Amino acid sequence: MSAPRDDRGESAEEATRLEWELNPAQWDFVQTAARFSFYVGGIGAGKTFAGAARAVLRMIEDPGSLGLIGAPTYPMLRDATQRAFFELLPRPLIRRYLRAEERLLLRNGSEVLFRSLDAPDRARGVNLAWFWLDEAPLCGYYAWQVLKGRLRQTGHPLAAWATGTPRGQDGFARDFETHPAPDHALFRASTWANARHLPPGFVADLGYSGAFAQQEIEGLFVAFEGLVYAFDATPGEHVRDPAERPGDAAGWARVIGGVDWGYTHPTAALVFGQDGDGRYWQLDEFYQRRASLEEVTLPALVELTRRWNVAEWFCGPDEPEHIAALTAALARAGLPARVTRAENSVRAGIQTVAALLARRPDGSRGLVVAPRCVHTLAEYRQYQWASADGERDPAEQPLKQRDDAMDATRYALHTERVRQRAADLTNAWLSGLRRGE
Ligand SMILES: Nc1ncnc2c1ncn2[C@@H]1O[C@H](COP(=O)(O)OP(=O)(O)OP(=O)(O)O)[C@@H](O)[C@H]1O
Ligand SMILES: [Mg+2]
How far apart are CA 36 and CA 175, in angstroms? Predict the structure, then answer.
């Protein structure tokens, strides 16, 4: 019996021919024989496309293989990585997609698992022939190392590839560029390499310069000097999972949020729980570029409010209509959260955040961030003063680049602090009032 034909008279097999045109860096990356490879590039440089194309090819060429596709968080996995993969995967190849297990089976017996890597240890226990990490530097070098240990499906060639924009000089920079490890290959593309698939003016709109442009547009591993915060990413210092907090079930004394509005630059909305000792735990983040206010940002803020019982949002004062829209959206959802215009003094706000980050007399930190908040963690490693030298002019400001989560942090914690100070002062004044005999 002949294969079924579509209305153009082609057989189903012929109809699944892959009609892709890859740019030169994508082409070399997809063809590489290196066991470990990294397509590093600027924003929009065709990284996810390259990783997804490679995953599709691998599944076709290696029947019966088990692979894993990972991204830093579940929303990034679903909205970018998985979406690009399914756009490239010819439908006739699919046998079944098991959504609850996030597992896809092809007719040739190949299989892939989709995983968010905000808790990489959950990926232990599988034997993989290949894996792909999208936005690998945000997933973290640790996740890459954990998954490398899972590369051991017998009878299949083994390979792992990463795609992403660099996030400073990390383990990826070392293994792929500064001290290349054996069997590691780096492929680099700037944003310009993919310009024909991007909106006109895309790079100019980003407005990046200096070290940020080198990282975000050229895809170089840049060392960021003159950092604003002394943030220690060693687990247990500034990075702490709230699930490990003793007495977590007791909940939070108060939950607040900070919002920095964006469009070309990301909108960042962060949630902080304050524990009984006055320590702030960053619990969650929403972080998205080019998100529509009505369709994406407001629903996300409503959802965060509901999930964490946010009592008050402190919002960037630059967009009064957005503040009004958030107030209305929360009211429509029947949520009692307050919405407040944030205090926006940069230097004083930075002092508040720096003081919270400092070690307290009991050895702990007054502000810690959950590992799932990958964009906030990346910003702490890159938030710089305008000049990189040691002496700070008191009027100096930080660079306005990749500061969206930093601004949202300042809005929430500093406004709360100013209010607390005002209340303390009032109480101090009033404490002198006595009724005479
Ligand atoms: N070879 C190609 N052929 C057709 N379209 C492509 C190709 N490479 C990339 N694109 C398109 O260009 C756009 C940006 O690509 P992609 O999302 O892969 O970039 P990225 O580097 O992952 O971006 P981001 O930094 O936002 O994650 C997408 O619309 C994608 O479909
Ligand atoms: Mg991408």
Answer: 10
Q: Best substitution site from 30, 38, 48, 165 to test ligand 1's pocket, by max atoms within 8 Å of Cβ?
A: 48
Residue 20 has a pLDDT of 94
Domain CATH for 124: 3.40.50.300
Residue 371's domain comprises 242-425
Q: Which ligand is nearest to the CA of 23?
A: 1
Instruction: Tell me the C-alpha distance between 106 and 98, whole Å.
Output: 11
Q: Is 314 within 8 Å of 340 (Cβ atoms)?
A: yes
Number of domains in the chain: 2
User: Which residue's alpha carbon is at the smallest distance from atom 5 of ligand 1?
Assistant: 197
Residue ending a domain, among 199, 216, 233, is 216
More confident residue, 225 or 194: 194
The pLDDT tens digits of the residues spanning 132-185 come to 999 999 999 989 999 999 999 999 999 999 999 999 888 999 999 999 999 999
> Please, are residues 136 and 172 in contact by the beta-carbon 8 Å criterion?
yes
Kindly give the distance from the C-alpha atom of residue 48 to the centroid of ligand 1, in angstroms, as a whole number. Answer: 6
Of all atoms in ligand 1, which is nearest to the CA of residue 52? 18
Kindly give, in sequence order, each residue whose CB lies less than 8 Å from that of residue 5, ignoring residues fewer than 6 positions away.
11, 12
**Ligand 1 site, CB within 6 A:** 20-23, 26, 41, 43-49, 84, 165, 194, 197
Domain for residue 7, yes or no?
no
By DSSP bridging, strand 159-164 and strand 36-41 are parallel
Predicted local distance difference test score (pLDDT) of residue 235: 79
Tokens of 237: 């210092």
